Amino acid sequence: MSNNKRIGKTYISEEGMTDLWNVWYNELHDGLSGLTVKVERVVESLESEFQRIDVLQTEDFGKMLVLYGSLMVCDNDNNAYNEMIAHVPLFAHPAPRKVLIIGGGDCGALTEVMKHPEVESCVMCELDRMVVETSRKHFPYLCAGLNDSRAEIIYRDGKEFIEEGGEKFDVIILDLSDPIGPAADLFQKAFHRKVYDRLSDDGILVAQTESPFYNKRTVRAIHGNLREVFPIARLYTCFMPIYPSGLWCFAFCSKKHDPLSGFDQERYDRLNLSTSYYNAETHRAAFALPQFVKELVAQK
To answer: What are the beta bridge partners of residue 237?
Structure first.
């Protein structure tokens, strides 16, 4: 019988667990290449109703949250993902009063949304309560937005919430895990059409859409679908050191507002947000795509 212990997608021998130099977290794309991080210790390992949850302590990245073997957040990545998925749509919409987040269990996106006083309410619909509880315990700074009276958490399947509800939102953020397993349906055109219907007349959707280097087929398919649903559909990127390839992309989709011409510089200057990655320059520059990405999502 094997005495190996699984950490993320890596199996470590019991003997190796006693030698911290031999404990590594590997996240590989198709089992071939990706990210490798030395692990100082396993802080906590849990099994929720939906997935495995690991919290790992590392030297370079601090604590890391790993869900179903995939790295989600860590202490030392400049919070780029959360800031870019939240502030880009909020500064492009002239009056983002009602916001919906589907997913986002680490609460980082919610906390960034709550920095905007114009937001009157933000609903976060998350399937796995244990992810939120683990994040509150180990990443309390990411969860500061939970203390805001404007924030509401609903523990429910995001697809059902979108399809069965009728409330309209100014901004919808799809802060989803990878398009596998239960989340796969949330990356399909039929779901995006339902999201379109839940947006206000000038609503904006932003969704994470994987790595344009490793996930070319997925990125091309998602953005092709979104162009058929929304009159404005643009891809933008950010630097994410903990995600495969370090280059991550998002879809900006809108019924009316362009993310560049609609950027509210006056409101940005007035709010003077505390951020680690996002600013007015990165907002604009994020839509300046490398040539291989432009070709990847070019209309045929």
So the answer is: 249
CATH code: domain of residue 56: 2.30.140.10
Summarised one tens digit per residue, pLDDT across range 51-74 is: 999 999 999 999 999 998 889 999
Contact 149, 125 (CB under 8 A): no
Q: How far apart are CA 275 and CA 112, in angstroms?
A: 9
Domain containing 43 equals: 5-74
Complete DSSP assignment for 190-249: HHHHHHHHHEEEEEEEEEE---TTT-HHHHHHHHHHHHHH-SEEEEEEEE-TTSTTSEEE
Q: In what order do the strands lie in the sheet with 24-29?
A: 24-29, 33-47, 52-58, 62-67, 70-74
DSSP 8-state code for residue 179: S
Beta bridge partners of 253: 205, 233
252 and 203 part of one domain:
yes
What are the Cα distances from residue 184, in Å, to 88, 187, 246, 280?
24, 6, 22, 33
Q: 40, 74, 108: which is the final residue of a domain?
A: 74
Secondary element (H or E) of residue 177: none
Q: 103: which 2 tokens?
A: 């997913």
Q: Say which of 54, 77, 128, 175 is annotated catalytic.
A: 175
Do both 152 and 44 map to the same domain? no
Residue 129: enclosing H or E segment and its boundaries? helix 129-138
For 174-202, what is each residue's pLDDT tens digit?
Answer: 998 665 544 555 567 788 999 999 999 99
Asked about 175 being catalytic, the answer comes back as yes
Number of domains the chain contains: 2
